Amino acid sequence: MKNKNKYWLLIYPYVFIFNKGNIVLFYNSRFGSFTYCYSSEITDKLSNPDNLYSIPIYLKYLQDEKSYSLINNLIHQKCGELIPYDKDGTKPLSIFPKLIIDDYGPDDSSNRNYKRFSELKELILFINGHCRKNCKNCNISFKQHLWCHKQLGEIPFEKIRKFLSFLTLSGVLKISITGADIFSYPELEQLTFYLKQFPILKIFLIHSSLIIDNEDKLKWFVDNKINCDILFEPKCRKELIYQVVKIIGKFHITSRFIMSVTSFEEYEYANQLSSAYNLETKIVPIYNGKNRMFFEDNVFLNKDDIHNIKVSMREIFSHQFVNTNSFGRLILSTDEKIYVNINNISIGNINDDIHQLVNSQLKKGSGWRNVRNNSVCADCIYQWLCPSTSDYNIVLNQFNLCSVKLGTSNDKELIMEANHKF
User: Fold this and answer.
1) Rounded Cα distance, 26 and 37, in Å
2) I need a labelling partner for 338 at 20 to 30 A (CA). Which of 90, 134, 252, 352 fits?
3) How many Cβ atoms are within 10 Å of 299's Cβ, its own excluded?
4) Contacts of the segment 101-104: beta carbons below 8 A, 24+ positions apart
5) Residue 416: how many other CB atoms lie within 10 Å
C-alpha cells in the first residue's frame, strides 16, 4: 500500500550537484539543464554520497514553499522523481556520479605498465628551426596553437627514427610534424617514407608561403599518405589562397586550411575565403598583446556560453581528473627536449626513457593532470563544466578566461536566479 504522506526523492545518476557557498547547482548532463537553488537540508542530504541519491520526503517538505519549488523544478528538469513509500519502505537506489580514480599508483606488472603507456596518444615533432621568412606573428602563434616557428636546432633523421622506435608498442594515434621551413630539412623525403609504415594519422604543418616554392616536394606527402595542415597569417592575400588551393588540388593531398585571426574583421575575412573556395577550414584566434577586447568578446566564456554548452558526464569526469587539452600528448622540440606544453619547462629529452616520462605525467600535479583547482576556478560553481585550461591561459597569464562571476554566495546574479526558481 502506498503512503501518500511520505515519498522518496530519487535523483538520476546523470545529474551532478555542485555546491559553492550557499548556492547549489543541479546539472543534468543528459539534457544539459541547469537548476539553481539555495543550500538546504534537502540539498545537503542529496549531496551526501552515502544516501545514494535517494532521500525521504515528508509532507512538511511538500508544504514548504521553497522545498516544494525545488522538488517541482527537479522533476520538471528531468533530474529526478518522487516515488511513494510502499508498505515495506524499500529505499530506491540511484548511483552517485563520483569518479572512481585509477590514480596510477606503484605497480610494476606488465599489464599495468602497458595500460599506462597506452595513454600516450599524440606526438608533435618540431624537426628544424631554419626559415628565411619573417612572419609578423612568428614568435607568438606557436605559443597558442600548433604552428611553425623559427628556432635554433635541427634533429637528424636518425635520432628521430630511434626516438620513434616505441611507436608500434604505444597507443599513439596521431603524429604531427612541423618546424620552421620544413622543406629545408635535408632528410624530409626519408622521414616521410619512414612514417608510411605506421597506421596512424600523420599530419605535416606547413606555412602557406612555403607551398608555392616547394611544389615539387609535395609528391613525397602523396606517396606516403600524409595529410597537411596549411597555415595562413591574418588577412592573407586572396592570390595566395588561390595558388595554394590549386597546387594542393593538383596533388590531391588531404588538407585543412588553418587561418589565424587577431580581430573580428579578420575573422569575417577568413570566413569569406573559406566559403568562396569551399575549404575545410579551422579559424584560430591569436593574442598579440593588443587585442584583449577581441578575446574578451569572442574567446572568453560568459554564463550564456556555459548554459549553451552541453557537457557530458564523461567530459565532467575528464575535467576533474586530467587536462583534456594536453592529456596523452608529448612534444619534441628542435632542442631535443620533450614538453607537455611548449610554454612550460621541459619534462625530459630525446634520450630519456619514454615509458618513465609517460609514468611521470600520469601522477597528480603533472601537465597532463593540470585541472581547474587553482585559486580562482576552485571557487566557481562552473568549475568542472568549463573546458580545461589551455595555452591561452598561459599566454594571457590568467587562470580563468571568462566573464563569469565566481558563482559563490556573493554572486548577485546567481542568487537572483536561485530566487527565481523558488
Assistant:
1) 8
2) 134
3) 15
4) 101/321, 103/364, 104/359, 104/362, 104/363
5) 11
**What distance lies between CA 3 and its chain's CA centroid?**
48
C-alpha separations of 337 from 125, 155, 236, 331, 384 in Å: 10, 11, 33, 8, 32
Q: What is the mean pLDDT of residues 244-272?
A: 95
b/e burial code for range 370-393 (CB count within 10 A of at least 16 → b): bbbeeeebebbbbbbbbebbbbbb
Rounded-to-integer distance, Cα 226 and Cα 252, Å: 11
> Sheet holding 23-28: strands in order across?
15-20, 23-28, 33-38
Tell me the three-class secondary structure of 3-61, residue by residue: EEEEEEEEECCCEEEEEECCEEEEEECCCCEEEEEECCHHHHHHCCHHHCCEEEEEHHH
The alpha carbons of the chain give a radius of gyration, in whole angstroms, of: 26
Global pTM value: 0.90
270-287 burial: b if 16+ Cβ within 10 Å, else e: beebbeebebebeebbbb
pLDDT greater at residue 230 or residue 104: 230
CA distance 369 to 323: 5
Residue 201 makes CB contacts below 8 A (sequence gap 6+) with 173, 174, 175, 227
Greatest C-alpha distance within the chain: 85
From the list 394, 372, 316, 336, the residue with the least C-alpha distance to 25 is: 316
CA distances from 389 to 123, 307, 323, 344 (A): 20, 19, 7, 13
Helix (H, G, I), strand (E, B) or coil at 48: coil
Which amino acid type is present at position 228? C
Whether 72 and 421 have beta carbons less than 8 Å apart is answered as: no
DSSP assignment letter at 301: B
Neighbour tally for 136: CB within 10 Å = 11
Q: For 352-387, how does the pLDDT look when each residue is reduced to its tens digit (9 = 90+)?
A: 999 999 999 998 878 999 999 988 899 999 999 999
Half-sphere exposure (Cβ direction) of 82: Cα atoms closer than 13 Å: 20
- Interval 172-200: pLDDT, tens: 999 999 999 999 999 999 999 999 999 99
Amino acid at 35: T
Q: Packing angle between helix 110-117 and helix 354-361, nearest 10 degrees? A: 80
